[in-house]
Design a protein that fits this description.
The complex is a heterodimer of chains A (496) and B (140). Chain A is an all-alpha fold and 496 residues long. Chain A contains 22 helices and two strands. In chain A, helix 2 crosses helix 16 and helix 8 packs across helix 20. Chain A is globular. Chain A starts with a helix and ends in an 11-residue tail after the last helix. By secondary structure, chain B is mainly α. Chain B folds into two domains: 60 residues, no CATH class; 79 residues, no CATH class. In chain B, helix 1 runs antiparallel to helix 2, helix 4 runs antiparallel to helix 5 and helix 5 packs antiparallel against helix 6. Classes of the chains: A mainly alpha (496), B mainly alpha (140). At the A-B interface, helix 8, helix 9, helix 18, helix 19 and helix 20 of A face helix 2, helix 4, helix 5 and helix 6 of B.
Chain lengths: 496, 140
């Protein structure tokens, strides 16, 4: 325990430079702005910032990305409260009570509550990140090729199951992502697959341009298709909540923080599920159930605590298993790999300080959102007034340059465009994006683990099904899939 | 698509001359993925048919809305990313794109259209400066 505290202290000391503080504050602000603008998501923000930070030292680049991630998840609450439009999907639950409070002339108060919830949620998530990463890291050391194969499959299945309205479409999006990850030279014989003689495809599809397309360009196309009318904002009162108002809901904060973190740990589920689950749990336990949806402070607090607690939660499996807990965490993981950081089961052996570096980065982000939540309300209100006809071309320029910057080749710009059109079409047809991203990120792990496992067992499939952790995972996957196909209706034939 | 992936994987070289076993063939994983995708696609198709996918007045009507602006955004964006970037100086390409985009989508608001070149010049300068001088990234 003391070793952890010492590492945390050293990490804070190493980041306490003027340059790091300025990067952290700047990135948190960018994140808040991206999150506040409806249509621009945290995943898009992290993907765009990944391309901007390529040449920076890895610690500062990751500081920027973590601050952008935390800031964007928090920023979504601004437009949820002021416009009744969630800035990011994670803030959808905040619309219910946040906007109702704004309609009652308490928009500033609602934003103060959302800031408090987000800060508390991130702090609770950070606590669990410090607590669970070493424990999960020890468990992960027992994982072999068989377990990693099922874990990758589990990530895609659970993400497909929980992130959209239709699990079948979610699984298909995940399978599509897994397939796209197989394009290019495979790992054993360097045999080129599905490249159709294109030299640029031999190395496979670059992950970051693909993600910038699927989350950047596709979202811009959707925003321009919807052509939202000019916004009408509610007046803003004081944004500083009373300490008593926050402490009054300490049970809700702790409960939502725990729920958010644990949902974050589940591969590929993400912040929006965390917010809704926390909100539902708060409503069930509340003495003021009738206020939920009509301006409940407790409801807003639960949703905001839950989604921000999910951010550190989603990073726990990234660090220990190299499996992302959410779509933005998938991009963050890709950025870690680009910057030469190798997360995975050996992280606590090879680089235990890195875990505390991530916690320090989150601490900086928390300070950033606390400052912006209290002092930049009027600026954010002005940002929400900027017309999409102006924002969209500027962001598209960033998508283009960012995609090119990864390897200085125009082919990556075309990959971005192709994934943008694909992502746009899939969204219109109600296919969720998170499983696609997870499939793209986990495709390599799934294939390598399957083929390595088969080579180790000389083609014998039994270790995949009989080793204890593997058996647990495949049974879980089977139950998830079967539960969607078999409707258990024990009372169907009874008459009332 | 699932069928095409299965067919492509099945006809893929199995590298038996290099001593590769069936379970390490390059087409194994994409083939399995294609097969599952094919099965799910069939299930989705059957379910859609049962729910009346071929009846008139389905989801197609809502999907057709907004295609004009989408096509215009695609045309302008592809014109920039494929036609201009890499073929013209980056600052000029960016200036032309941002200006044209804002002017097209602000039409017929003349005052806002008149602001388009200012936004174009500002974006072109800031992005070029930020990427080259601050983030040290090469521009196309």
């Amino acid at each position: 325990m003391f070793e952890g505290l010492i590492l945390f202290g050293k990490s804070i000391a190493s980041f306490l430079t003027v340059e790091s503080v300025l990067w952290a504050l700047g990135a948190s602000l960018i994140g808040v702005v991206i999150g506040a603008l409806p249509g621009l998501t945290a995943t898009m923000g992290v993907a765009l910032m990944t391309t901007l930070t390529l040449k920076m030292p890895s610690s500062q680049a990751l500081l920027v990305l973590v601050c952008t991630y935390v800031g964007a998840i928090y920023g979504g609450s601004r437009s949820a409260i002021l416009l009744n439009i969630p800035g990011t999907p994670a803030s959808a639950a905040s619309c219910l009570d946040g906007y109702a409070l704004a309609r009652q002339g308490r928009a500033g108060y609602a934003m103060g509550i959302a800031t408090s919830g987000s800060v508390m949620g991130t702090l609770i998530g950070m606590f669990f990140l410090a607590l669970f990463t070493p424990l999960l890291g020890n468990v992960a050391l027992k994982f072999g090729a068989y377990e990693f194969f099922w874990l990758a499959a589990f990530g895609v299945v659970i993400s497909g199951n929980l992130t959209g309205d239709d699990p079948l479409k979610g699984w298909m999006a995940g399978l599509l992502g897994l397939f796209l990850a197989t394009i290019g030279q495979e790992g054993v014989y360097a045999f080129e697959r599905f490249t159709f003689g294109t030299r640029d495809l031999a190395g496979g599809l670059s992950l970051v341009p693909a993600l910038v397309g699927a989350f950047g360009f596709a979202e811009l196309l959707l925003v321009m298709r919807e052509r939202r009318p000019p916004v009408e904002l509610n007046p803003v009162d004081s944004v500083i909540p009373k300490l008593g108002d926050v402490l009054k809901y300490w049970r809700t904060i702790v409960r939502s923080g725990c729920i958010g973190t644990f949902i974050g740990i589940i591969p590929g589920v993400g912040e929006d599920s965390a917010a809704w689950t926390s909100y539902a749990a708060a409503k069930r336990a509340s003495r003021e159930k009738e206020l939920f949806g009509k301006g409940s402070v407790e409801g807003l607090m639960a949703a905001e605590t839950g989604d921000n607690a999910c951010v550190p939660g989603a990073i726990i499996p990234v660090l220990t298993l190299q499996i992302p807990g959410s779509a933005p965490a998938a991009v963050l993981m890709a950025a870690m790999l680009i910057h030469g950081v190798r997360p995975g089961p050996l992280i606590m052996v090879e680089a235990p300080h890195f875990v505390y570096d991530i916690i320090t980065m989150m601490l900086f982000a928390v300070i950033g959102i606390l400052i912006y939540g209290l002092v930049l309300t009027r600026f954010l209100v002005q940002v929400l007034r900027v017309r999409y006809q102006v924002i969209v071309p500027i962001i598209f320029v960033l998508c283009t340059v960012g995609s090119f910057a990864i390897a200085s080749r125009l082919f990556d710009v075309w990959v971005m465009l192709a994934f943008g059109v694909l992502g746009f079409a899939l969204r219109l047809l109600n296919y969720p994006m998170a499983p696609l991203v997870l499939g793209l990120v986990l495709g390599d792990l799934l294939e390598k683990s399957l083929r390595r496992g088969l080579v180790l067992s000389d083609g014998d499939l039994t270790p995949f099904f009989l080793r204890p952790i593997s058996a647990f995972l495949w049974v879980l996957i089977a139950l998830i899939v079967l539960s969607r196909f078999i409707r258990w209706r024990p009372y169907a034939n009874r008459t009332v | 698509m699932g069928g095409a992936i299965v067919a492509g994987s099945w006809t893929m070289d199995r590298l038996e001359r290099h001593g590769a076993a069936l379970y390490s063939a390059p087409g194994l994983v994409p083939g399995l993925l294609g097969l599952v995708l094919l099965v799910m696609g069939v299930l989705l198709g059957v379910r859609a048919l049962r729910e009346g996918a071929l009846r008139s007045g389905g989801a197609g009507a809502s999907l057709r809305q907004g295609w004009g602006s989408t096509a215009l955004v695609l045309a302008v964006s592809f014109g920039y990313a494929v036609g201009l970037v890499g073929h013209a100086p980056f600052w000029l390409a960016t200036f032309l794109f941002v200006t044209a985009f804002i002017a097209i989508f602000e039409y017929p608001a003349l005052r806002r259209m008149a602001m388009a070149p200012l936004y174009g010049a500002g974006t072109s300068f800031l992005v070029t400066y930020l990427f080259e001088a601050v983030f040290l990234v090469r521009l196309p």
